[in-house]
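Retro notes, item 3 of 5
We never archived the inputs for the heme C complex last cycle. Fixing that now. Sequence and ligand:
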Amino acid sequence: MDKGRAKWLLPALALTAVLAASPLIAQINVDGVIKYRQNVMKALAGHVGAADRLVRGQVPLMDQLELHARAAREIAHTLPTLFPAESIPPEAEFNGATVSTDALQAIADKPQAFKQAAQDAIEATDAFLKVVQAGDKKALPAAFKRVGEACKACHKDFRKDQE
Ligand code: HEC
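Structure as it came back at the time:
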């Protein structure tokens, strides 16, 4: 093979590989995505629930509060990534979901409101972490309450009612 052709061979092969793979990239494991976000939510609830006991002064381990505030904040920042359209009913069923999800179709129908609900949780956990880091004990209950309200507000509009 002459050098001129060899120069193009590799990029051409790479392009072919990318094009061939693109339908696969678009395809997601819907069950995996649903289970993943439910576990992430549980982790978030674990940290917020632990912080709750500390904020109430029930546990003499206040030095661990920052750990939970930081984890909750880090997790809250992933919220906008957890709900791809393919994993929201009824799309989820069309895409072969076999596990149940409490996510409501409203997530797909009202993307702006959903984005805002996620943003509110991000800002609430950002603010809570700052209060914890500042050691501002007086501001703790209100900052923590704001976090809980951000969870509830999103669940009210975008999560199936829990019996
Ligand atoms: C932007 C919206 C939104 C915010 C904010 C949000 N959640 Fe959720 N959460 C959901 C949705 C939607 C589901 C249902 C997910 C599913 O079943 O696929 C859910 C599910 C859950 C679950 C059940 C997980 C399971 O086992 O199935 C828990 C626990 C939870 N959230 C806790 C929290 C806590 C604690 C916060 C606040 C710190 C929070 N969530 C903030 C939307 C949100």
